[in-house]
Amino acid sequence: MPNVPGLRSVYARVGRLVYFGRMLDKIRLLAAGQLPADYTPNVGSGFDERCCHFLKVAHGALQKRTLEGGTDEEILAWCHEQGGARSDMECETWNGFMMKRGWRDALRERLQMRIKESGFEDKTIETMFDYIEYDEGRDPVAHRAWEQ
User: Fold this and answer.
1) Are residues 47 and 6 in the same domain?
2) pLDDT 10s digits, 6-54
3) Cα–Cα distance between 82 and 124 in angstroms, integer?
4) Does residue 75 form part of some domain?
């Protein structure tokens, strides 16, 4: 997939959380008719579903709240109001889990399949986050994206 204007890196943080901002971007881009068709089946599922589960909010409610407007930080604060605030330790666990998905876990086989299908065998891809970054034209290894 090419880089999608307005869709940030999976590694980008909002507050203490990776991925959350990307999920908001997908919601906004879908509503504006600017999310590529290949992305739309995953809105609300996969990593979106995991993120909503972690925050204890329904994706539909988050979608509605996001489209009402406000900053990413305001929307994250709303999530904490709805589902309860997450501790620093919970956020660290979330980030670590998400950034390592596909590395020595149940998603590894699917990751290897995607790497092969995309012709990325020559890339240093250890996780689904890395795969997504390369797939969208970013090099997470060169930029050490996980440290940002």
Assistant:
1) yes
2) 999 999 999 999 999 999 999 999 999 999 999 999 999 999 999 999 9
3) 39
4) yes
